[in-house]
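User: For a benchmark we're assembling, each entry needs the component sequences followed by a predicted structure for the full assembly. Here are entry 17's components. Please fill in the structure.
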Amino acid sequence: MNENKIIEPKGEAEQATENTEAKKIVQLIDVAKSFDGEIILDHINLDVHEKEFITLLGPSGCGKTTTLRIIAGFVTPDTGDVLFENVKINDLPPHKRHVNTVFQKYALFPHLNVYENIAFALRLKKVKEEEIYERVEEMLAMVNLRGFEKKDVNLLSGGQQQRVAIARALINKPKVLLLDEPLGALDLKLRKDMQNELKNIQRKTGITFVYVTHDQEEALSMSDTVVVMADGKIQQIGTPTDIYNEPENAFVADFIGESNIIDGVMLDDYKVKFSGHEFVCLDSGFGRGEAVDVVVRPEDVDVVPLDKGMLNGVVTSVTFKGVHYEIIVSIKDFKWMIQSTDYVEVGQQIGVYVEPDAIHIMKKSEYSNMFGDYSSFSDELEHLSDASEEEE
Amino acid sequence: MTKKNNILKQAAAYPHMVWAVLFIIAPLLFVAYYAFTDKNGKFTFANIASLAQAAYLEVFLRSICFAFLATVICLIIAYPVSYFISRTSPQAQKILVMLVMLPQWLNFLIRTYSWMAILEDTGIINSILGIFGWELHMINTPAAVILGMVYNFLPYMIIPIHSAMTKIDPRVLEASSDLGCNPLRVVTKVVFPLSLSGVISGITMVFVPSISTFYISQKLGGGNFDLIGDSIERQFQTQYNYNMGAAMSFVLMILIIVSMAIMNKYSDDEGGVIV
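Assistant: Structure for entry 17:
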């Protein structure tokens, strides 16, 4: 996990209001799907709006890929309806839908060269040769692959294959482009470049993108709307900033970025007690004395001298991360993660200070006690679990 | 270390090299020797030249026609069967492939005799048809011979095509329907080109044994449709004319090599041809 969450505040709020007014292009209504008795999608409702970059985000097995495949037409829902421009398309086969897919690991046609792969959809429609040439060249220019026409796709690098896959899916001018973990097989540097490129392509073409990923950073930096999924259910739908700053429950808080999730009690509106201390917060509307989950992001915790701290604790570990130190502090037997540019020593007693706007209150949910503190936190384990997710 | 490994690797190839020299290259040299000599061991083209007789030409032509038809029929049957098998679950595929190979566990002679019992004028099919007062003459016809070939060599068409099809990434098929292929076009535009190497192997593996087969025609054709294989057998077994037998074998070999070369030419660089 990366701690440098760069949240771009630019215009996302406006975009969100735009989106609510924009036309709904794809709607999933009460869609459920099971495979061999195992529930994959548990009655989900989802609206995709025109020109939106919407990301389905969640760990492996959360149902995000199945959702995408239902929109593409490869999976038929057990119950519920799929609407495309307000027309029910439950039983419409994939080749008749106005959506195209960029597949995980590209799925290029190994018997065709770059040009023929991209021209594939147009050839099926018996488009004139000159027009095919024009449009393929246009696509090649868009994905920066000019001059690769005659190349064997099996000999291209991962990034180049990815570009061919995107061009092949876009040449049909689909109304919606579905992308199934398209960058999962690329190395980090290339993935960052491709993220920008994809975002640019989406802006330029104005095509609705439905993007599936398990990489929260990718989701936050590219999307207009993020749909967080777990256990076949949608946990939260919102703009990246909403999702990060106002997580709906402990799952979302834990999955998106790093979070200290602490048990608390609402004493009154704008007043919450946790770790034996009363805090002022910005949340209201909870019952008096209601048990809640409190989220405090590691970067929102300030390290202060002991006498100025709202809470006091002992530093149990410090890791240098480049931009900041990652400090684990034991406060009343709860291990907090704090990100700070100030160096502290292991074993040192420190005070911590939390501003009211850094506290986010969530209702208790089925995920409330699933995410412990950072006592067993290890970077290595995080990476291992990331690696296993790649294989979905 | 690597040098030692190389020596070991080379050593591992020796048994096969000895085998190949003793049982492949040497016999071929013998065939060539007999084909180009007369009974007294003198060099001659007479054996080869005498194959230009109408009787022999007819045998060659018939063999080519029968083998061609058997191969085409095998392909027409095997392709959809292979496609069907390759779409089933891995466990089902194992069982179905085993069922395809199952008849091969029985002796070739017994299988051919069984077909006689089925096709004869007093055989199984005709006894059933007889109930309705019908009668169908099947045995000793060209169709019976070709049926025998198709039955015997069909598995060798199915196995390579099936194996090529299982190597096709299912996502590629999804991609094609995503881009607008209806189910038929998925097959013509993607499955077929990607299974072409298997088709070519299959054609080779059916055509070659079909063109050189013997015994099937004797039993199911009643000796009316002499094929090259039968003629060669007769030269060695009853005429004791090794020179003529060798000459026919030699020409058959050339024929096979030429037809494989043509196949190779059409298979581009798919590289799936097993000769």
